[in-house]
Design brief:
With about 550 residues, the chain is mostly beta strands. The chain has three domains: about 170 residues, Sandwich (Jelly Rolls), CATH 2.60.120.260; about 240 residues, Jelly Rolls (Sandwich); about 90 residues, Sandwich (Immunoglobulin-like), CATH 2.60.40.3080. About 5% of the residues lie in helices and about 45% in strands. It contains three helices and 36 strands. The strands form six sheets. Strands 13, 15, 16, 17, 18, 20, 25, 26, 27 and 29 form a ten-stranded mixed beta sheet that branches. Strands 14-19-28-21-22-23-24 form a seven-stranded antiparallel beta sheet, with no helix packed on it. Strands 1, 3, 4, 6, 9 and 12 form a six-stranded antiparallel beta sheet that branches. The N terminus is likely disordered.
């Protein structure tokens, strides 16, 4: 988001070996697919076919039309040149719409995805199949996971599909077989993909910070900072033409969501008048390693540029929340992690990217995909930040992994804290008819891999816990708990944990050496309050009555 985005040529390098370790099987029926020949078997297919139900989760222009006019074993299939290695990728997904008026008979409403060896005379004898039920008259996305779903091997003596290497045909069948019933189906966004997973023993499932946006009006000031200062005194980076403001007209909470509003309006600030406004938020929480998960619905309009991203808190950027105490390096030495970017002039295409000194900040290390209805439906955008790589997922499907062969300051400036940014920029090519559009965020969550038992044990064993330089009073407490802490020399963060489960109940930032926390909503019981400042950690317990 920070850099000027440079369009680079994409070179597809196919490394041929005995299997298809890097095989890409995808088709959006808009001309972007890698599947060269869909074939009919006792059915009729038309592709591309104008999407007759441009709604719900699928607002793309074109689809594949599948017609079964009563063939006993009607299906559609394609063959691949080299056998599929199910140890690399394990799942297929597609979108499907079946209109109820197209169906005759009483066959079950279902879709089967079958894997076969198409090189032999009886391909069906080798098949492994997953069957999924479907709803009628609605677009839905189905996943066929040959690692975790229930599957049917026609030959009961066959190995599990993920252990086989003889598959080279993928077959789709709607509403069963061995019947004369008719059905029409529309299929879109077919993809063979790798299941998202972290390294063994490293699972980011311990929630450490979040905002569920359950308030009303202004944002929680203990969690978010409005970055409004023009970095050069005139404009924002990348030729952006908006003012960022701290007004509720541009960012507010309502009905359990954050609304970040880009608007067309004349607005003057810092001696500059601009014709568009928006908001740019910095999180007041920074961390190293973990998972960021954001559920969001994107704005629309040519020239809009929403982003969910991260920067090192050591960035020396005018007006940034972390600059006064930690700003020591320029961009891109701080490192940038783009979890989600979307450009209104390429509706529904979402991208993730990394910016480092090795690429001089350019958008070289990236990946993305089309998410139909990205502005009409919520999707979950996430990154898992490990010590050696970044794994980006949309709705739990891996879309890009950044894992440099050599990790140093040029390729991997990701060994220190980063913070989250949320914003919608306005590009110079904004549609003249644009008036306003919202980036709507259901939640922002950060997880680490620290287990509950380890968390509590580390607090109990801390010298600070045994002889604390932190005091809380009154203790026991009914409503307002006051915190007094010594030797806080830099920015500090506090959190209250359940003593039994280790769950983070509430959290916030220290404003000064004496702070108060409203615990009136906590149920009666014992809690742990911890304060982290730099490398210093202090903790003590209190009783809520």
């Amino acid at each position: 988001m920070f850099s000027t985005k440079i369009l680079s040529c994409i070179v597809l390098l196919f490394v041929f070996s005995g299997n298809i370790n890097a095989q890409v099987l995808t088709d959006d029926f808009e001309g972007n697919g890698t599947i060269s020949a869909w074939k009919e078997d006792a059915s009729t297919i038309t592709k591309p076919f104008a999407n007759p139900f441009n709604q719900g989760i699928n607002t793309s222009n074109n689809v594949l039309k599948y017609e079964d006019s009563g063939g006993d074993y009607a299906n559609v299939f394609f063959d691949v040149g080299r056998n599929i290695d199910m140890g690399v990728k394990q799942a297929f997904k597609l979108k499907i719409y079946v209109p109820s008026r197209s169906i005759s008979g009483s066959s079950p409403n279902q879709v089967s995805l079958k894997l076969q060896d198409g090189s032999i005379s009886l391909p069906w004898s080798t098949q492994s199949e997953i069957v999924k039920s479907i709803q009628l008259d609605v677009w839905q996305e189905l996943t066929f996971d040959f690692k975790n779903d229930n599957f049917i091997n026609l030959d009961a003596g066959s190995s599990d599909p993920i252990d086989r290497t003889d598959f080279n045909r993928v077959l789709i069948q709607v509403n069963g077989e061995n019947n004369k019933d008719k059905v029409v189906a529309y299929i879109d966004d077919f993809e063979f993909y790798k299941l998202a997973q972290g390294p063994t023993g490293k699972v980011y499932n311990h929630l450490v910070w979040s905002d569920e946006f359950n308030g009303s009006g202004s944002l929680d000031a203990s969690k978010w900072y409005h970055q409004t200062k023009l970095p050069d005194g005139v404009s924002w980076y990348n030729g952006e033409i908006q003012h960022y403001t701290n007004r509720t007209e541009n960012s507010y909470q309502a009905n359990g969501s954050l609304h970040l509003v880009a608007k067309k309006e004349t607005f003057s600030d810092q001696g500059q008048t601009k014709n568009y406004t928006s908001a740019r938020l910095n999180s007041k929480y920074a961390f190293t390693y973990g998972r960021v998960e954001v559920r969001a619905k994107l704005p629309t309009g040519r020239g809009t540029w929403p982003a969910i991203w991260m920067l090192g808190k050591n960035i020396d950027e005018p007006g940034g929340f972390w600059k006064p105490e930690f700003g020591t390096v320029a961009w891109p030495a701080c490192g940038e992690i783009d979890i989600m970017e979307h450009w209104g002039n390429n509706q529904d295409y979402v991208q993730s990217a990394m910016h480092t000194p090795s690429s001089n900040g350019a958008t070289i290390n990236k990946g993305g995909k089309t998410l139909s209805g990205a502005s009409n439906n919520f999707h979950v955008y996430a990154v898992d930040w490990y010590e050696d790589r970044m794994v980006f997922t949309y709705d739990s499907v891996e879309v890009y992994t950044y894992k440099p062969a050599t990790r140093d300051a040029r390729t991997w400036p990701f060994t220190a804290d980063q913070y989250i940014l949320l914003n919608t920029a306005i590009e110079p090519g904004i549609d003249p008819s644009f008036t306003s559009s919202d980036l709507v965020i259901d939640y922002v969550r950060i997880y680490d891999d620290q287990q509950v038992e380890d968390t509590l044990e580390s607090y109990v064993n801390e010298k600070a816990f045994q002889n604390p330089s932190i005091a809380v009073y009154p203790n026991p407490v009914s409503d307002i708990l006051r915190i007094a802490i010594q030797d806080v020399t830099e920015y500090a963060h506090w959190k209250v944990l359940d003593m039994v489960t280790g769950e983070v109940i509430i959290n916030g930032e220290l404003i000064n050496a004496n702070n108060s926390v409203d615990v009136s909503e906590l149920v009666t019981g014992a809690y742990l309050i911890s304060v982290t400042s730099g490398q210093s950690h202090k903790a003590t317990k209190f009783i809520k009555y």
